[in-house]
């Protein structure tokens, strides 16, 4: 991606950044051997870096967030990225304190999603009254503040400066590519648990997420952004490495063997195509189809052929483990005959338990982030293991926060999609190729998130990054082009 010059009031890289960056990297290296000492040194450097260049600190957050770096305290994982977000939040508050409470509220709660977001936090706070774990609920509220409030504000801080957006997106695409390469290594050498075996001699890729559906979600939400930028963006974005990253991202979706990811990207590409056809016509649609449709098909074929290899030499071949084509077929049959598919049958049991939680706690739920405690106390008959969540965003929030949680989910997602579609349709003529492509990609990422979260729950560190960048991009464009400003 080709960076443009950054103005002096929008610092990205400078000589002043080098000492703080060196200290942060030194701390990271020391942490490999002496964790606590290294972490302390790292954050000294990171705090300094944040005060010198907020965009540089945000880039480092993007790089670090998908990796499980952190500590476990009171049964909760605290990531290094969580502490990085706190530092950046303090920097934003310091820089904009003169705007007063109203100004800070506008900065942290962007207009397109402001009121559904406020409603979500009201329901989350109210859920403390009936929470099964007050500590767990408070941690979840802070986590949502980090994602939907702090990081969206950080990414939109410098507006539509293309150079800074190039760096944010490049960091995301590089991290996804690295994650997929590691996932391919797992897939080819069968480096994973037996229950993840596919095609006999392989396993579903998990990357560093530990779960294939989360790995797939990270890839499937990134793919629409990449496909739109490469197909519809300016010539400077049609570089070879971005096309390689696009191919790797599509490969990541496939080797996750996550049906939710496959359906999410299929639906995302379809709706993106409709939006492109309505705003830029058939030629633009053809260009997009050559990347958004052809690349995933090629990667399905590649993975199908790779499935015929055996580099594991573990003799764990079991004929029942489906190959890529069979897995694709069962994506349909699992809907028609859920009882005949173990994964689908287990999800139905989990969803039944979530509905039970909603019936028992319809007003305030069991506390944000506490459904896993409810199902642990009331396990349905036939459940193979206690899940960490409800495998459905809407039922998860319904169980956690009552019926208001479901309203919050639907209202929030509607505001995401409606604002992005409205911008693209009404402001097509005013949008540069770069921002047209970015907004169409953001819409695709939001769509993939909405679809995939019908069968999974993907609000977690790392996997949420593509969505946060998409939300920030739409809110930036809304401030510049939207008819309603605040």
From TrEMBL:
InterPro entries (UniProt xref): O-antigen_ligase-rel_domated (IPR007016), WaaL-like (IPR051533)
Pfam families for this protein: Wzy_C (PF04932)
Keyword annotations from UniProtKB, A to Z: Membrane, Transmembrane, Transmembrane helix
Membrane topology annotation: Multi-pass membrane protein
Keyword Repeat carried by entry: no
Domain O-antigen ligase-related intervals: 245-409
Localization terms from the record: Membrane
Listed transmembrane segments: 21-48, 54-73, 165-185, 263-281, 288-307, 401-421, 433-451, 457-478
Primary location class: membrane
Keyword Transmembrane appears in the UniProt entry: yes
PANTHER family, per the entry: LIPOPOLYSACCHARIDE BIOSYNTHESIS PROTEIN PA4999-RELATED (PTHR37422:SF13), TEICHURONIC ACID BIOSYNTHESIS PROTEIN TUAE (PTHR37422)
Protein's name according to its UniProt entry: O-antigen ligase-related domain-containing protein
Species the sequence originates in: Sulfobacillus thermotolerans
């Amino acid at each position: 991606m080709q960076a443009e010059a950054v103005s002096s009031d929008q610092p990205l890289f400078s000589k002043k950044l080098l000492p703080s960056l060196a200290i942060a990297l030194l701390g990271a290296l020391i942490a490999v051997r002496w964790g606590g000492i290294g972490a302390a040194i790292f954050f000294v450097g990171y705090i300094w870096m944040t005060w010198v260049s907020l965009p540089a600190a945000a880039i480092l957050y993007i790089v670090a967030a998908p990796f499980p770096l952190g500590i476990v305290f009171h049964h909760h994982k605290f990531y290094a990225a969580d502490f990085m977000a706190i530092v950046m939040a303090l920097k934003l508050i310091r820089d904009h304190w003169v705007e007063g409470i109203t100004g800070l509220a506008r900065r942290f709660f962007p207009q397109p999603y402001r009121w559904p977001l406020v409603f979500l936090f009201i329901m989350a706070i109210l859920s403390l009254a009936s929470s099964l774990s007050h500590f767990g609920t408070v941690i979840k509220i802070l986590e949502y503040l980090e994602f939907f409030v702090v990081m969206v504000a950080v990414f939109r801080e410098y507006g539509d400066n293309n150079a800074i957006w190039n760096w944010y997106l490049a960091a995301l695409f590089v991290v996804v590519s690295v994650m997929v390469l590691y996932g391919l290594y797992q897939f080819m050498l069968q480096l994973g648990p037996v229950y993840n075996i596919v095609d006999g001699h392989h396993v579903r890729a998990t990357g560093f997420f530990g779960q294939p559906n989360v790995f797939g979600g990270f890839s499937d939400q990134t793919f629409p952004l990449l496909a739109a930028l490469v197909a519809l963006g300016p010539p400077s974005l049609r570089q070879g490495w971005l096309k390689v990253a696009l191919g790797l991202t599509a490969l990541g979706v496939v080797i996750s063997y996550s049906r939710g990811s496959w359906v999410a990207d299929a639906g995302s590409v379809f709706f993106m195509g409709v939006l492109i056809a309505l705003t830029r016509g058939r030629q633009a649609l053809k260009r997009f189809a050559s990347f958004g449709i052809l690349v995933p098909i090629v990667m399905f074929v590649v993975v199908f052929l790779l499935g015929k290899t055996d580099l594991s030499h573990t003799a764990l071949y079991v004929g029942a483990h489906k190959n890529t084509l069979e897995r694709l077929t069962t994506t349909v049959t699992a809907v028609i005959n859920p009882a005949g598919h173990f994964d689908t049958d287990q999800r139905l049991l989990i969803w039944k338990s979530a509905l039970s939680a909603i019936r028992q706690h319809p007003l305030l739920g069991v506390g944000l982030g506490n459904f896993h405690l409810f199902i642990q106390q009331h396990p349905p008959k036939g459940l193979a293991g206690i899940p960490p969540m409800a495998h459905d965003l809407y039922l998860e929030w319904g169980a956690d926060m009552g019926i208001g949680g479901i309203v919050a989910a639907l209202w929030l997602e509607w505001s995401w999609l409606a604002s992005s579609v409205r911008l693209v349709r009404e402001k097509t003529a005013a949008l540069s190729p770069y921002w047209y492509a970015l907004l169409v990609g953001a819409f695709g990422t939001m769509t993939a998130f909405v679809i995939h979260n019908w069968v999974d729950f993907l609000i977690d560190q790392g996997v949420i990054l593509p969505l946060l960048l998409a939300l920030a991009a739409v809110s930036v464009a809304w401030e510049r082009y939207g008819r309603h400003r605040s």
